[in-house]
Amino acid sequence: MISLVEKYLEISHYSSQKSEFEDLFQSHPNYPSLFTITDSLDLLSIMNMAVKVPKEQLSNYLIIF
User: Fold this and answer.
1) Fewest beta carbons less than 10 Å away: which of 23, 24, 41, 48?
2) Does 63 map to a domain?
3) Is the dihedral of CA 15, 20, 24, 27 positive or negative?
4) Residue 8 belongs to what domain range?
5) Number of domains in the chain
6) Per its UniProt entry, which superkingdom is the organism in (predicted)?
7) Predicted local confidence at residue 60, as pLDDT
8) Residues sharing a CB contact under 8 Å with residue 65, sequence separation 6 or more, in sequence order
């Protein structure tokens, strides 16, 4: 899971925050969970959003990786 987020951070030009993200993520009280990812990104002031999208509709959205 963390490798996907690190790839997102690289693509989004936040490579310098990968280490800090990993520390926040692994020490989060709700680890491992989607909430852990979004909360850690929020703490780093990195815009993010978790949404539920039906598989059939995924092609309608821009996916960067």
Assistant:
1) 23
2) no
3) positive
4) 2-49
5) 1
6) Bacteria
7) 85
8) 4, 7, 8, 11
Residue type, 58: L
> Per the domain annotation, does 60 fall within a domain?
no
Q: How far is CA 50 from CA 6, 44, 53, in A?
A: 16, 16, 10
Gap between the Cα atoms of 21 and 37, Å rounded: 9
Taking the chain (65 residues) in consecutive chunks of 10 residues, what is each chunk's mean pLDDT? 92 96 98 96 95 88 68
Is 65 contained in some domain? no
pTM score = 0.84
Exposed / middle / buried, residue 29 (Cβ in 10 Å: 0-12, 13-18, 19+): exposed
pLDDT for res 19:
97
Give residue for tokens 């993200």: 21
